[in-house]
């Protein structure tokens, strides 16, 4: 090992430490017996017990999961169909929509959130519908999830060997049956990866949820935010630890999905 | 042998010549639902924001006619009470913090990307996954954790004081330093992943050839390596700069009133001040920024897999 | 000692003229003739990609039960033609009939043809059994019948015991057989093969060439086979269409294509060939006399064709720009023509006897020894020729600089169309 690679290794170690410092400190402090402040006063699992009896946190967890599951199912179906439609069929405005897909990737969350909030209140003042709540949150989440799903599935479609679909047609499969029996099974890993991404985005989202939520539709991120605003408490650290562990589990799952050899892929 | 693939523009698909109507019917089935959804919940709301930015603030919140450019004038510093640099300053601060974050992330991501790329076989996946895990972990949690890390009684704060980085009694947070630290930590994966994708593909023989030809280390990097990682670099810069500039959570939790950024002002206008046209005007400015960034990102040409 | 002109080709023996006179054999060898309706009838097919004409007025008739090869270099349009027949692409102009039926309005999945793709295109998410059953499933054949037909066809292509594997677990040769089985199980009227052996190594390719040929004979299905490999086309095909630049240069049996090429392209693409430029001095209808850089040559006209030519159909959709020298009854003196002669047809002897009518002195300029044969570069008058001589030890090898007698048998000389 020469001096240069030693420097590089050191830099990488420092950077990894930097990336993981916040994650580790939250987990460690969830076991800190001190009720307030940062000093370490001893090990305890008390906060996990309080958390499990905290009805607000449990309700928020339930809302988060409901929101995540519903929005992910809707956005995965719509996003997958959109990806296939955009790559195969022409319609006026196709180019515009292909570009519009990238807007939610870059747009600041706040802008999307206020735009949706404004639209909701406008519709509400005209029709009386769209009372803020889990429903409006699902509408909002699906809106930013569809593009991510569509982008992931489209890249999978682009990597698909077109001779496979031609072979299906050649063997007597109609257009629909080619999609159903060949295209869909082959892009399924991409669809699953897209769904995982959509689900995680929904779980992570705070800003859009914060603006579009109503009374009784508090999610975990909103709960964490409002608690943090009042001052960090150890049970919030315990809650965050659960979320962190779920994220790590999800990441490993996605990593495994991606590293499975993609069948039917040209690469 | 393999000739040009069928051209969908000819209305042709696997031995079926689809009429215009044929395409429309199929588009309606496949693209239709999502197109409708995005039209009414993305396109229309964004246009609404742009529209409202030209309207007048209503008496009890809400908006009224006539159309006016007042909100934009105010954003540029020419408010009702004469020139006030508050909002231009916020705008500049956001841009500066965004650019600073992007620059620092780049500085940090370069060694990280090269480190991972040089890991042997299986370890490379581990190194990469270790970057991806924080990326998938809730940003809110990773941000508030810095409140604990930078708290006055924390080891980090004491170390900074004993080393004389900050005057005694001066807290590390809230402040620009804390915001910057949180931003870099939160967005580092956004830079590392696309950059790594480019670094992994580097043709090292070019660097060796350059070194053979007598180039020093600096020139090797500039002439043989930099051009090869430019696509990933540009993607990373855009992916960090845009969300960092419009950030709401990080300055809200780690900064004080003195570090308010675009996102915070927009939130204020819609939440507490109830000045929708002004909030919409700031949002429109942010949208313009996004459009420019998107243009750069999509123009990179290379069709690298989306790092997201 | 007389050195006979010897054929270097391992495919044919005897003199060129004898081979060309051989009657058409394949119909009597058991391949069924199913009436007079051609399996494929194309006329005036055009396919453009942008400004490039991948197919320029291609007309072609392929008989039932025939093993037909489309031979040509990369980008000559042969794959495009195959895709038009399969229905995976559509022509910009022209008509195409399969079994007498115009297929312009019939989409790919309803055509009575199946394709073996160049990359095999086996479905990676299905097992071998499911891959082969795919076409039958799509046609809603009863499951019991599917199982039986799949088993039968897998036995036919000698893939048994691999039914539950995925394509990724197969070797190249196995994939090729499965792809073949997947197409054949549907009992198509026409089987299309797009460079089916292209991805295999030489030994396996040679073996599968024979197997494919036998399979075609057993099934009696019309095979249309696309290849850029001339050996493959010569070995397997009943007839070959040589394609170049989106056009068909010549359609004929393998022997005729090799022995009597009609165009420069055919002469030089298939095997190697010496081209001799010259001008007509006399033409008596049977023999054309020309003056060439290597002296006067007499070239007999080809015998009357035993079967009508298939090159350009009666419609004459695409007339050749230049007169066809082989068919024009009389060529006027002074007309510029080209003649072709295969290197192995050129006889070389040491000074002394002259074995044939056209004998000239030649100087050896160089040689390449390659085991079974030696290739000589000769200088004859103003002409450079390549000759290939079998190393049969009839005589001592010639040396560079040596002057030898070079004989060009009249029957081996071919007057080209262009």
User: How many whole angstroms does the radius of gyration of chain A measure?
Assistant: 23 Å
Instruction: Write the element-wise H/E pattern of chain A from the N-terminal end onward.
Output: HHHHHHHHHHHH
> What's the number of helices of chain C?
9
Number of strands of chain C: 20
The proportion of residues in beta strands of chain A is under 5%
- pLDDT averaged residue by residue of chain C: 80
CATH homologous superfamily label of the domain at 343-414 in chain C: RNA polymerase II/Efflux pump adaptor protein, barrel-sandwich hybrid domain
Instruction: Provide the helix percentage of chain C.
Output: 10-25%
Strand order of the largest sheet of chain C: 6-7-8-3-9-10
Structural class of the secondary structure composition of chain A? mainly alpha
Label the structural class of chain C. alpha+beta
What is the overall shape of chain A?
Answer: globular
Cα distance, first to last residue of chain A?
A: 34 Å
Question: Which characteristics define this entry?
Answer:
heterotrimer; B: 308 residues; two-stranded antiparallel ribbon; 13 helices; 6 strands; C: 418 residues; alpha+beta; OB fold (Dihydrolipoamide Acetyltransferase, E2P); six-stranded mixed β-sheet; five-stranded antiparallel β-sheet; 20 strands; disordered N terminus
Topology diagram in text:
The complex is a heterotrimer of chains A (267), B (308) and C (418).
Chain A: H1 3-29, H2 46-52, H3 55-88, H4 94-100, H5 103-106, H6 109-127, H7 134-158, H8 162-170, H9 175-204, H10 207-212, H11 220-230, H12 234-259
Helix pairs in contact in A: 1-12, 2-12, 3-7, 3-9, 3-11, 7-9, 8-9, 9-12
Chain B: E1 12-13, E2 16-17, H1 20-30, H2 32-52, E3 56-57, E4 63-64, H3 70-75, E5 78-79, E6 82-83, H4 86-118, H5 121-136, H6 139-149, H7 155-162, H8 176-200, H9 204-212, H10 217-245, H11 249-254, H12 262-271, H13 276-299
Antiparallel strand pairs in B: 1-2, 3-4, 5-6
Chain C: H1 16-21, E1 40-49, E2 52-62, E3 67-71, H2 78-86, E4 93-98, E5 101-102, E6 113-116, H3 128-138, H4 143-156, H5 172-184, E7 190-194, H6 202-219, E8 222-227, H7 230-236, E9 239-244, E10 247-253, H8 254-259, H9 264-269, E11 274-283, E12 287-292, E13 295-300, E14 336-341, E15 347-349, E16 359-370, E17 373-380, E18 383-390, E19 403-407, E20 414-415
Parallel strand pairs in C: 3-8, 3-9, 6-7, 7-8
Antiparallel strand pairs in C: 1-2, 1-4, 4-5, 9-10, 11-12, 11-14, 12-13, 14-20, 15-19, 16-17, 16-19, 17-18
Helix pairs in contact in C: 3-4, 3-5, 4-5
């Amino acid at each position: 090992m020469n001096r240069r690679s030693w420097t590089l290794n050191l830099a990488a170690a420092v950077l990894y430490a930097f990336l993981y410092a916040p994650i580790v400190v939250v987990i460690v402090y969830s076991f800190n017996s001190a009720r307030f402040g940062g000093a370490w006063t001893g090990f305890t699992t008390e906060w996990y017990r309080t958390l499990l009896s905290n009805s607000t946190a449990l309700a928020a967890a339930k809302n988060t999961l409901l929101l995540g599951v519903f929005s992910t199912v809707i956005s995965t179906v719509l996003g997958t169909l959109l990806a296939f439609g955009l790559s195969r069929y022409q319609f006026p405005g196709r180019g515009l929509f292909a570009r519009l897909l990238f807007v939610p990737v870059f747009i600041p969350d706040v802008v999307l959130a206020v735009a949706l909030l404004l639209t909701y209140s406008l519709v509400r003042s005209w029709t009386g519908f769209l009372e803020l709540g889990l429903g409006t949150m699902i509408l909002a989440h699906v809106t930013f999830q569809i593009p991510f799903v569509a982008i992931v599935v489209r890249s999978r479609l682009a990597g698909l060997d077109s001779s496979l679909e031609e072979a299906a047609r050649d063997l007597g499969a109609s257009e629909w049956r080619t999609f159903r029996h060949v295209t869909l099974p082959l892009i399924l890993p991409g669809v699953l990866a897209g769904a995982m991404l959509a689900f995680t985005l929904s779980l992570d989202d705070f800003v859009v949820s914060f603006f579009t939520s109503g009374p009784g539709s508090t999610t975990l991120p909103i709960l964490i935010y409002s608690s943090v605003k009042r001052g960090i408490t150890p049970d919030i650290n315990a809650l965050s630890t659960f979320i962190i562990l779920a994220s790590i589990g999800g990441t490993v799952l996605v990593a495994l999905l991606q590293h499975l050899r993609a069948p039917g892929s040209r690469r | 042998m393999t000739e040009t693939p069928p051209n969908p523009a000819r209305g042709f698909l696997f031995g079926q010549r689809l009429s215009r109507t044929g395409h429309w019917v199929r588009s309606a089935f496949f693209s239709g639902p999502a197109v409708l959804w995005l039209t009414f919940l993305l396109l229309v709301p964004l246009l609404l924001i742009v529209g409202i930015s030209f309207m007048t603030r209503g008496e009890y919140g809400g908006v009224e006619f006539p159309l006016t450019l007042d909100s934009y004038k105010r954003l540029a510093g020419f408010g009702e009470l004469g020139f006030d640099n508050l909002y231009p300053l916020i705008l500049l601060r956001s841009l500066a913090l965004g650019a600073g974050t992007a620059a620092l992330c780049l500085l940090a991501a370069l060694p990280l990307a090269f480190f991972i790329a040089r890991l042997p076989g299986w370890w490379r996946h581990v190194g990469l996954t270790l970057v991806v895990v924080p990326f998938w972990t809730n940003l809110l949690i990773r941000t508030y954790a810095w409140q604990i890390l930078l708290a006055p009684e924390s080891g980090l704060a004491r170390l900074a004081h004993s080393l004389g980085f900050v005057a005694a009694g001066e807290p590390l947070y809230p402040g620009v330093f804390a915001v910057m630290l949180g931003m870099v930590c939160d967005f580092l994966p956004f830079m590392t992943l696309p950059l790594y994708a480019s670094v992994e593909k580097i043709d090292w023989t070019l660097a060796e050839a350059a070194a053979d030809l007598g180039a020093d280390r600096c020139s090797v990097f500039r002439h043989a390596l930099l051009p090869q990682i430019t696509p990933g670099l540009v993607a990373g810069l855009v992916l960090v700069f845009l969300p960092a500039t419009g950030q709401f959570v990080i300055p809200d939790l780690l900064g004080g009133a003195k570090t308010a950024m675009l996102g915070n002002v927009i939130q204020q206008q819609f939440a507490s001040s109830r000045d929708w046209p002004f909030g919409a005007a700031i949002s429109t400015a942010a949208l313009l920024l996004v459009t420019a960034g998107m243009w750069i990102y999509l123009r990179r040409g290379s069709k690298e897999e989306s790092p997201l | 000692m007389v050195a006979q002109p010897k054929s270097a080709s391992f495919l044919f023996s005897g003199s060129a003229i004898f081979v060309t006179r051989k009657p058409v054999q394949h119909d009597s060898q058991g391949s069924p003739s199913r009436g007079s309706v051609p399996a494929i009838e194309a006329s005036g097919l055009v396919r453009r990609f942008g400004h490039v004409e991948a197919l320029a007025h291609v007309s072609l008739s392929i008989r039932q039960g025939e093993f037909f090869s489309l031979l040509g270099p990369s980008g000559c349009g042969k794959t495009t033609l195959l895709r038009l027949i399969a229905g995976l692409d559509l022509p910009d102009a022209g008509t195409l009939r399969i079994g007498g039926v115009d297929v312009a309005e019939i989409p790919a999945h309803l055509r009575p043809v199946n394709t073996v793709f160049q990359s095999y295109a086996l479905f990676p998410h299905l097992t071998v059994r499911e891959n082969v059953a795919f076409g039958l499933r799509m046609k809603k054949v009863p499951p019991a019948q599917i199982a039986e037909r799949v088993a039968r066809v897998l036995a036919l292509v000698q893939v048994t015991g691999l039914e539950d594997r995925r394509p990724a677990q197969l070797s190249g040769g196995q994939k090729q057989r499965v792809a073949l089985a997947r197409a054949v199980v549907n009992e198509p009227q026409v089987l299309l093969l797009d460079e089916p052996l292209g991805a295999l190594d030489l030994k396996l390719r040679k073996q599968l060439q024979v197997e494919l040929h036998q399979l075609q004979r057993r099934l009696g299905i019309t095979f249309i086979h696309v290849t850029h490999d001339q050996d493959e086309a010569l070995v397997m095909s009943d007839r070959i269409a040589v394609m170049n630049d989106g056009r068909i240069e010549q359609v004929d049996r393998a022997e005729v294509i090799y022995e009597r090429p009609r165009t420069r392209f055919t002469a030089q693409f298939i095997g190697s060939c010496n081209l001799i430029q010259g001008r007509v001095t006399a033409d008596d209808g049977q023999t054309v006399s020309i003056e060439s850089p290597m002296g006067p040559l007499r070239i007999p006209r080809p015998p009357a064709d035993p079967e009508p030519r298939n090159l350009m159909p009666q419609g004459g959709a695409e007339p050749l720009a230049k007169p066809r020298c082989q068919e024009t009854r009389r060529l006027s003196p002074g007309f510029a023509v080209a003649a072709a002669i295969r290197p192995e047809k050129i006889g070389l002897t040491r000074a002394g006897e002259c074995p044939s009518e056209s004998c000239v002195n030649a100087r050896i300029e160089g040689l390449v020894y390659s085991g079974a044969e030696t290739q000589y570069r000769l200088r004859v008058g103003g002409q450079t020729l390549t000759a290939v001589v079998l190393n049969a030890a009839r005589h001592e090898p010639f040396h560079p600089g040596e002057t030898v007698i070079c004989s060009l048998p009249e029957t081996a000389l071919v007057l080209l169309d262009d």
